[in-house]
Amino acid sequence: MLLNLLFTNPIEFVILAGLLVMALSVHEFSHAAVADRLGDPTARLSGRVTLNPLAHLDPLGAILILIAGFGWGKPVMFDPFNLKHPQRDSALIALAGPCANLIMAILSSLLLRFFSFSPFPFFAFLYEIFSLFLYLNISLGVFNLIPVGPLDGFKVVAGLLPKKYYADWMSLERYGLIFLLLLVFPVFGGTAPVFMILSPIVNLLVNLLMPGRGGII
Q1: Which of the following is catalytic: 12, 28, 128, 173?
Q2: Exposure string (b/e) for 161-181, b if CB count within 10 Å is 16 or more?
């Protein structure tokens, strides 16, 4: 649990919290930038097309990160009536955040390969930092692809559905927070169901991208 680090290793807590904020900011900025690109100015007018973390932090999402290790930033609002293809474009906007995290993880993987060959101690420190950053971006991206509102996966699935099922699927969004809390609430031996579902996927991706290492979950 991240919150435990505040009392056991404050320096590691500050580093980890900073990396999480960075990953969340890139994630939410990507939503806003794609929405603006697709013709809806709502995010830009709300000041969300920025990497400034203060524009993107969500209190509940931040608390869940501290408690459960997974969370989200402040949702990027957009008006589907400003989109040329509302169902498809809404899915693209939703997908932009997890894709940005995957891109950050891949870039981290490339940097790790460079750092691993350096004999300087400072590069060993950077190796550990970017290892964490890689892991956090994969975790954030995969978690947000869960098809439960308010997570991105809900709208991604909506964009893939035939139009006759779209309205029925979107009507489930109002119950999303209830389903999400059930997923993050520890039940099985103190383990949240979300960890049981996502850990194998995250571990597989970390194994693929982390140079010369096994999974770190």
Answers
A1: 28
A2: eeeeeeeebbeeeeebeeebe
Q: Mark whether 173 is an active-site residue.
A: no
Q: Spell out the residues 6+ positions from residue 68 whose beta carbon is closer than 8 angstroms to its own.
A: 1, 184, 192, 194
Query: Sign of the CA dihedral 81, 84, 87, 93?
Result: negative
pLDDT tens per residue, range 148-187: 988 999 999 999 999 999 999 999 999 988 888 888 777 7
Tell me the pTM: 0.86
Q: Which amino acid makes up residue 21?
A: V
The Cα–Cα gap between 182 and 175 comes to 11
What are the residue boundaries of the structural domains of the chain, listed by start? 2-209
Whether 25 contacts 89, CB under 8 Å:
no
Query: What are the structure tokens assigned to 154, written together?
Result: 């809900």
Model pLDDT for residues 96-125, shown as the tens digit of each residue: 999 999 999 999 999 998 887 777 777 788
